[in-house]
Structure formats: C-alpha cells, structure tokens
Write a structure and sequence with these properties.
Distance between the termini: 22 Å
Largest sheet: 5 strands, mixed
Number of strands: 5
Shape: globular
Number of domains: 1
Number of helices: 3
Radius of gyration: 12 Å
Order of helices and strands: EHEHEHEE
Strand order of the largest sheet: 3-2-1-4-5
Structural class: alpha/beta
Oligomer: single chain
Length: 95
C-alpha cells in the first residue's frame, strides 16, 4: 500500500504508520522542505512540486506512483479532514 501525504501533518502521520505497517510513503513539496527531506534518514519519495489545491499536479503524482508501484492501493491524504487521514483512490489505468 502507498500513502500520499499532502501536508506536513499528513506526512508525520504517514511516517508514523510506515514504521509499523508495510507501507510506501510519497509526498509533495508542500509536505516537507527540500532541506528537511535531504536530512531525513528514512525512505520517502518526494515530488518537487506542491500537490495541495492543484488537481492536475495530484493527477500527475498518482500516475507517477502507479508507474513505480503498479496495482498497489494508493491512499491520499484527505486535507479537508480535521486530523490527518488517508482515503483510498483509484489510480488511473495506464494505456
């Protein structure tokens, strides 16, 4: 399963869950700065663009994740929730 974090709080929750579950974590540039990412001592894939409030960027991110993790369930952070939570999304099939 893959978690896609959009915010810093969502990334914190995703990394916490990754410690105890078999998960892969991805995030956008709005979830962690480049310098913080470079100093992070754990597996994480980071897009170099922001994902929040950009449907096209989010769609591109999901397509990229599908390329790297085909047929995996992808949970995307629900940024409208009061606490970080992740919702299942269907990744688009590759043609």
């Amino acid at each position: 399963m893959v978690l896609l974090a959009i915010t810093a709080a969502g990334l914190t929750e995703a990394l916490r869950r990754e410690e105890s579950e078999d998960l892969v974590v991805w995030c956008g540039a709005d979830a962690i700065s480049e310098s913080a990412y470079d100093s992070l001592m754990r597996p994480l894939s980071r897009f170099d663009y922001e994902l929040k409030d950009d449907a096209f960027a989010l769609e591109d991110a999901l397509e990229t994740i599908e390329l790297h993790h085909p047929n995996q369930v992808v949970l995307v952070e629900d940024v409208g929730a009061p606490n970080p939570s992740f919702q299942r999304t269907a990744t688009p099939p590759l043609n």
